[in-house]
Please model this.
Amino acid sequence: MAVQLQLKQGELIALLEGEIDHHSARELREEIDSTASRTRPHTLTLDFSRVQFMDSSGVGLIMGRYRLASEWGGQVCVANLPERLEKLVSLAGIRELCTVVRTEEEEK
Model:
């Protein structure tokens, strides 16, 4: 699992890649939290366009970043979820906490 982080105009974009399970979620959390805590972006966008598999650890990853961003008044955007992951995210109630968008263009 890899993550590329990009900060632009107060938005931190985390481009996630590969599979998100218990082991990889911990590594992602540490890397994202380190940068997000330092920069305190108004929006933390988690881009799932390159994620092939995600279990409940991915839901925990999203919810934990929501809690973190809430500490400084930020928000979380979940972008580009593959269709097979949308049901998992919806059932977990993520749509009630975060903005969920299909493409980066919808986000603007």
Remarks:
- The beta strands are 2-8, 11-20, 43-54, 75-79, 99-101.
- The mean pLDDT is 92.
- The CA atoms of residues 20 and 83 lie 16 Å apart.
